[in-house]
Amino acid sequence: MNLALSDEQVLLREAARGALSRFKTLEAAREALDGHEDALPDLWPMAREAGWPGLLIDEEHGGAGLDAFDAMLVLGECGRVLASIKLLGHLAATAILNEAPAGASLLADLASGEQRAAYLPVKPPDDLAQEWTVDARVGSKREPAPSGGRGAPGEQVRVSGELAFVPDAPGADVLVGVAMLDTPQGTGGEPTGVAIETSADGVEVEPIMRYDATRSLAHVSLKEAPATVLDAPQSSLAAAWHLAQALLAAESVGSVETALDVSLGYAKERHTFGRPIGSYQAIKHSLTEVLRQLDNGRSLLYYAGWSRRGGPDEFALAASAARSVAGRALDQAARTMISVHGGIGATWEHDAPLYFRRAQLTRRLLGGTHGATDRVAGELMTAATAA
Amino acid sequence: MDLDDTPQQAAHRAQVRSWLEEHASEAPVLNGPDALQDEQEIIAARRAWQGKLAEGGLAGVTWPKEFGGQGQGPIEQVICSQEIARAKVPGILDAIGVGMLGPTIIAHGTDEQKSRYLGPMLHGDEVWCQLFSEPAAGSDLAAVQSRARRADDGSWRLNGQKVWTTNAQFASYGLLLARTDPDVPKHKGLTMFIVPMDAPGVTVRGLRQISGEAEFNEVFFDDVALDADAVVGGEGNGWATALTTLMFERVTIGLGSEGLGYNSNRFAHAIATNEDARRDPEVRHVLGEIASELLAVRFTGYRTLTALQKGQVPGPEAGLAKITIVNGAIRAGELIADVQGPDALGKDSEWAYMISFLPGLKSAGGTEEILRNTIGERVLGLPPAPRLDKGIPFSELRSKEAAAA
Ligand SMILES: Cc1cc2nc3c(=O)[nH]c(=O)nc-3n(C[C@H](O)[C@H](O)[C@H](O)COP(=O)(O)OP(=O)(O)OC[C@H]3O[C@@H](n4cnc5c(N)ncnc54)[C@H](O)[C@@H]3O)c2cc1C
Hints:
heterodimer, A: alpha+beta, two-stranded antiparallel sheet, 11 strands, 49% helix, 18% strand, B: Butyryl-CoA Dehydrogenase, subunit A, domain 2, Butyryl-CoA Dehydrogenase, subunit A, domain 3, 3 domains, 4-stranded mixed β-sheet, 4-stranded antiparallel β-sheet, 13 helices, binds flavin-adenine dinucleotide
């Protein structure tokens, strides 16, 4: 039993913090909201220099061969400063490719960051629904996953489908995800990994900005798009979804850390009625509530980070629980940040609105915090009745 | 990062497991149709079982060997708790003594006290209780008024009252915080004593709780004579000694939370057996929220263990886990009662007992408000609220309060 970070992990985190501190990410986030999208610094060259694109790719393919928890440490640092960095989609995509010999030829360029991938988020079945589904463009009803024809690993098939709010798809070179491919038994039967080049005919990537300019999103439309069939095991296709949940959780926990730090600083400094506001219980207790949720979130990051390799049967539960707690923590932290700051907390020039925007959009992406919470219940009830 | 046992820990676990397999049939049965009914019988059986656990090395795991413990680390302690839970047998009866009061005596007691009291405590031959809270001193523990006066021969006379004292109804000894000098500020004039519960002048009266059962008590002291060697940690050092107990209380609560049975699997099972509830999105959502937080606490426990292994002492943030567990269990009780209806509140329902127990548990071992104050100040570094009792002799303080009322 040892949940301490290794020396390498501490170094990875420190290096990430140092590298990100060279950019004015928060100012850029605000300017971008005002319509100056070019205000967002391009963080990809920095990510490449740091070796982040290859974090989850095996060393034999040019990656660092690290695990989920290491990637989560980096995402946490990005979350602290609301960095607009296209890592989430890339990391989840490379996690699938790394398990697919048929996609191995793509890995070297993705590991170096010469090319960038984005993950097509397709939600695996749970205890109630047997289908693989995608987020809808409008509303919360889930839509069917993309589908396509028959093909052996390495072969090309045609895939069609719509995916809404795909993280980091704008500008990506390759899309990696799941499509329901025909089998000898019938059509659209088998969830299968696919890799699709965005330059191909039939692929449309429509960038979308919603509420938080730092979050790169696109609606992806596939019309008979040529896709390489991957031989990644089905478990890795589901695991990619859970990995994305865990990465979002880590990023959110990072944002909570900053929101709490900034709020604490103000609570110690701002005086009313002759006392620092942090000496009032209403303020003190609301900040300990943020700490409580933050601490729970942190603990679940360990669970999720450990379970991907250490207890794969629990990865769905662990990652969903992390996402659930972290999403709520971020909302709580952002709202508390605003209220502790009083009027200036609600002012455009302050950073609090940026954390608030991050919280509101992020909690609705990739099946939503809500969906993750539901999966926690499903996973536990399945286990409870099986035993 | 890993959650696996080291080869040593695995060996320890195997040893504990085989001991439990061999002895589980000797454990008292507390649930189900064959459960013991008579209160006295239950206590006697649980004391005997504690003795067996101690002999098997499953109690007092972290106590030094010279006092009958195993001299092992917190991890081994947790392994024992996990295996005891897995074997579905009761743990020790005197968790307050072995977890909090014994370690306080080990830290502050004299050699004579250690050799006289620790062995029988560990084996359940003498159960202990924590005589700290009083009617006018719970959160504000340093306001205790129980008064011990020294006689010319060095012995003490004790007068006063304690309240909400868990296990006092069958305890042999209590660790008691008393005021020995009212003319100095309130944290300074305190002394810790060992009190025999059968001493003349000690009266224990059961207090019933929400469940209807009487698991705690009020205890009266009427000119109780105590020997000079009843003092633990030195005269006037009662506050420092009490803080040690409260520190071990945090460890006990932090690491023992799973032992309370407030865990996500148990609650999930209660919902899953109801097919409609299982499919109800709202029920699932509430269950998912509760369960996520309770799972988090399990890993917070593992983080605490990692820190303990490195020799770090758990700080007040351990109180966050208590807040999460108690509030999570309260919400779970709500959800289960909503799903099961009035049946959940039936006389023999495990849920009725849990639902009744939790509002009190919110106060026990530090109320939520006090925990949030402490964590806000000591962990987050927020400034304390202004106090009106600093530096004022206790005797003046009381007359001020009386005048203001
Ligand atoms: C089931 C149970 C078992 C117990 N077992 C034991 C035992 O074995 N031994 C023992 O010594 N004690 C025991 N206790 C007592 C327990 O420690 C006290 O009840 C607890 O410390 C609260 O003290 P109090 O009851 O005096 O409440 P008070 O301190 O009077 O508090 C009343 C209310 O005021 C709030 N409050 C008080 N001060 C502040 C403040 N500064 N800021 C904000 N809010 C404040 C509290 O949070 C609470 O809501 C037990 C209690 C229970 C319920």
